[in-house]
Amino acid sequence: MSALKPNVVIGGVLVGVVALAALVGMIWTPFNPLAVSFTARLAPPSELHWLGADEFGRDVLSRLMVAAATSARISLLTVVGALFAGTTVGLVAGYFQGWTDRILMALNNALLAFPGILLALGLLAIMGANEYGIILALGVAYSPSVARVVRGAVLSLRETDFVAASRIMDNSEIYTIVRHILPNCIAPLIVLATSMFGWALLAESALSFLGLGVPPPAATWGNMLAASRPFIAQAVWLGLFPGLCISLTLMGINLLGDALRDRLDPRMRGV
Amino acid sequence: MKRMLVTAIVVALSMFGVAQAATRVTVALTADIRSTDPGVNRDDNTDGVILNIVEGLVGYGEGGDVKPLLAKTVDVSPDGLAYTFKLRPDVRFHNGETLNSSDVIWSWNRYMDPKTGWRCLADFDGRNGLKVVSVEAPDAETVIMHIDHASAMFLDTMARTDCGMTAILNKASIKADGSWDHPIGTGPYKFVDWKRGRSVTLARFESYVSPAGAGFDGYVGLKTPHIDNIEFQVVPDPATVKLALSTKSINIAQVLSSDVKELKADPNLVVLSIPDSSKNVLLFQTKDPLLADQKLRRGIAAALDYEQLVDMAGDGLSRPNNSAVFQGSIYFDDVQREGFKTDLSEAQKLLRESSYKGQTIKLIANKRSPMPSFQVAVATQAMLQAIGVNVEIEVLEWATQLDRYNSGNYQMMSFSYSGRLDPAMSYEQFAGDKTKQLRKVWDNPKALALIDRAELVSNQDERRKIFDALHLMALNDAPLLTLYNGLTVWVHNKLISDFKPWEGKPRLWNMRVDD
Amino acid sequence: MIRFISKRLLTALPTLLIVAMLVFVMIRLIPGDPAALMLGDRTDPASLADLHRRLGLDQNIATQFVRWFGHVLRGDLGASIRTGEPVLPLVVNRFWVSAGIVVTAVALAALIAVPAGMIAAWRQNEALDVGIVSAATLLLSIPSFWLGLLLLYAFGLKLGWLPVVGYVAFSENPFAALLYIVLPVVTLVLHETGVLIRMARASTLEVLRLDYITNARAKGLSEPAILVRHAFRNAFGPTWTLIGLVFGNLFAGIAVIETVFTIPGLGRLLVDSIFGRDYPVIQGCLLFIAFTYVGTNLVVDLLYPLFDPRVTAQ
């Protein structure tokens, strides 16, 4: 084992800090993140409010800490959901081909062409105003890309020797898929997954900007960033800190993702 | 300097079409207008543009009273069943034709045709109570309308902005196949062009003849157009609007109340905050098992510090008003000034006596800009927390909230009612039989009888007594908490003078611009 | 070739049908009523019934769908509830506005991102690579509504070089039109460059490890020559596929840009229609977006062999 590469260290530190902030935020925050203060409206960073206060006098640091957990949960669940659904569809479609493939891909393309904002609105209406509507909407919106990537990989793997061998050895279809095909799809999926993690953070923010994100008063980095926009001239810290949180987290995730891919991709091993 | 590029284009553009020294003003719109057909396909934003182009027989004055506009006089028969409108003789349409009674009859018949889709048809064909039996034009300057029963609301309804002021239009406004073309009205500005999704352009109507008056008076009074060209530009993002004001690419805009402090610091801009008759309210669903308890509702009412709440929600620009009668109304007197008393110990006493046992109450709000719904909800939640009432805010998108409002499906709701100048109409917005209309909030038979009465009598003193009584009943029942009247903040370039928006809508007449 | 194209178009039909049905049902399941929105808080039952009848919303969903779909088959997408405009010309008009911006932006982004990604891969794990990847990540992580506002602030207000609001169509005045789309295009380019750099870098890395590159190296070819002659053609393929995906996502995402820069495009139209529950326009927009999406991907697949010698069109 060689010594850790610098990008792994930097990535690990960035992600670790976010995870730590999220964990601490679950137990303790300097202020109640929802507590309104009539006197602290738009207060600049000070000894009392380290990162300032927002338009309702709520402590920005406390909200960022709580939001770390919410934002991470949204992105993680979105990515995991999209990976699971997309991989399943892609494997089934690519492996069985024929009509199964045609039907699944028609559905898949329909979803790809379906804008996330309408999904978000629909699911928020059905699930009530909470983060799970957003997670589901983004998950559904991202899974078709995963399905396409996996299906493509499966199609090229299907005809390889080791898959044919597995079939000849009378292994079940599912065993063949899970044992031989799935592991070879991992590398492209990791690149996609780390990208999706970032997309989810930003998509949630863009939805908030258009009026459909995770409903306030619950805090996410995305909706804090969107809500800070009218105050760009009066209180720049309102947008700066959540923006930094998103940037640094993305950088950390991407660095770790690239490192992980380099390790896992069979073609890249030993280079 | 570096602005040259932009300036060069502006100059190039202005050399194209517009004559020299023509004055031009750009006004920002937060959304595109829905159509140019008054009272047919409209929203408040649309009305704000169109009512500079068209006028009705009567219009609202500043105090919410109805005054003649295209009519010189309006006479009501002693039995209240016949209204005689004498037209002003010198009024011209934008195409040069002179207004006469046949135009009124034509416009009226068009509105009463269900195919037109006039928004206020049901208010005049008997389905909502009042019915116009017949309309006649004995001569070119006279129109007589006969209604089926005496009503104090007839002229009010005609003057309503959402009815498009029941504008009188020239026949050339519609195409040969009967479809809508563009408005040819009698207003101070004429319609020039509508680039969908982008802009609406108006031009000064040179032959405009103003109704009598000394100055601004609602939609009547002295109206003189001074600006040669006015362009409404669609700018949906409030942050962009601010930048556009600073770069002078927009001369007039409505802005968020939270931006006032920032914009006041700019020496080139003038900030106006203008209260109107819209109402920001907290609604209770009195059919809800928990909130059916009047003690709980009154406890909540006593727990709110209205000064502080309004200060936070309205960014320090508004004053509390617990009455359904707006602060500028001719009926806003000392009785109306009386409001809910903030008294925490009284609130706690009422809560103890009530059936409330710490349940979570859901408060629905929206983030539709520039409405203060969410701000009101956050402040309310904080104040109720202090006396041990748990409120959970549920933010919905506006169309969804409106759906919940119309079906009565809520516990508490932070809501804004659009402006109603007449108090009877203001009460009618939320009072009514809940079994017939689920959206109604206040269902008290005694109050409903009083409102019906106010819609019948025209005598101001008698109406004042009715409204005072209604206000005290509403404070006691607390079916909703009226918090404060809405306010629109407008910013304009320092070179513009006499820009006086009213009821949230831009009035373009009398306004001047210095070169 | 013609058979390939017609087959692809035929397989796209079910996709379009599914989109049409999904949208139709979904938008009607969402609470909210276009008639109530139009009447606001003065929704008396009589006026509401009038409006429902006029808009054809008084019938059940199945009847409404059959009627709408019948019209669609005849090329009639209906008329907007909010403005009464016919949907097809409305959508097509707005599409060209958005398309002009999106196509320019993606083309520029690809021109910047592909070489940058390749250089990063070539200098993997060196300072240049870390710099490029960090810059890409930073660009990726700034929401376009913030980036756009900052650019407006800098170039519109502080420097005064470019207009802050408004839009001029290309057909009206090409020079002025350019001035108005500079900032939205730059905003999009910056963002999409971030996305594409990572993809180009990853695919180049993969290619650089293949045998024929090793062979080329062994033959003594210079590194830039390898990069340009061999790696570029091979690495561009996957990126090209991604560009197809990016197009699809952009039409959903461009609403934000169009809001900030006051551009009357398709994204803004869709968002406004969704909030206004303008059913015919929402349906028309989505059908159209799905259609262009299918079309774009077809073009991408047809052009793929040009960039990736390993693949030939069937």
Summed up, the domain count of chain A is 1
Instruction: Give the number of DSSP strands of chain B.
Output: 20
Q: What profile does the largest beta sheet of chain B have?
A: 6 strands, mixed
Tell me the CATH architecture of chain A.
Orthogonal Bundle
Rg from Cα of chain A: 22 Å
Examine the coordinates and then state which fold CATH places here, giving the name of the CATH topology of chain A.
Answer: MetI-like fold
Helical fraction of chain A equals over 70%
The secondary-structure class of chain A comes to mainly alpha
Low-confidence stretches of chain A: none
Cα-to-Cα separation, first versus last residue of chain B: 20 Å
CATH H-level superfamily title of chain A: MetI-like
By helix and strand content of chain B, what is the structural category? alpha+beta
Assembly status: heterotrimer
Characterise this structure.
The complex is a heterotrimer of chains A (271), B (515) and C (314). With 271 residues, chain A is mainly α. In chain A, 70% of the residues lie in helices and 0% in strands. Chain A has ten helices and no strands. The longest helix of chain A is centred in the N-terminal third of the chain and has 37 residues, at 60-96. Chain A is elongated. The radius of gyration of chain B is 24 Å and the shape is globular. Chain C has helices at residues 2-29, 34-39, 45-55, 61-73, 87-122, 127-141, 144-158, 174-208, 211-218, 223-260, 266-275, 279-307. In chain C, helix 5 runs parallel beside helix 12. Chain C is globular and about 85 Å long. At the B-C interface, helix 1, helix 5 and helix 12 of B face helix 2, helix 3, helix 7, helix 8 and helix 11 of C.
Itemize the secondary structure elements and their pairings.
The complex is a heterotrimer of chains A (271), B (515) and C (314).
Chain A: H1 6-27, H2 60-96, H3 98-112, H4 116-127, H5 131-158, H6 161-168, H7 173-181, H8 186-209, H9 221-228, H10 237-264
Helix pairs in contact in A: 1-2, 1-10, 2-3, 2-5, 2-8, 3-5, 4-5, 5-8, 6-7, 8-9, 8-10, 9-10
Chain B: H1 4-17, E1 24-29, H2 44-50, E2 58-60, E3 66-68, E4 71-76, E5 82-87, H3 101-112, E6 132-139, E7 142-147, H4 154-159, E8 189-195, E9 199-204, E10 216-217, E11 220-221, E12 229-234, H5 238-246, E13 252-255, H6 260-264, E14 269-284, H7 294-303, H8 306-313, H9 334-337, H10 344-353, E15 360-365, H11 373-385, E16 390-395, H12 398-407, E17 412-417, H13 423-430, H14 445-456, H15 460-477, E18 480-493, E19 496-497, E20 512-513
Parallel strand pairs in B: 1-12, 15-16, 15-17
Antiparallel strand pairs in B: 2-3, 4-5, 5-7, 6-7, 8-9, 9-12, 10-11, 13-18, 14-17, 14-18, 19-20
Helix pairs in contact in B: 7-10, 8-11, 13-14, 14-15
Chain C: H1 2-29, H2 34-39, H3 45-55, H4 61-73, H5 87-122, H6 127-141, H7 144-158, H8 174-208, H9 211-218, H10 223-260, H11 266-275, H12 279-307
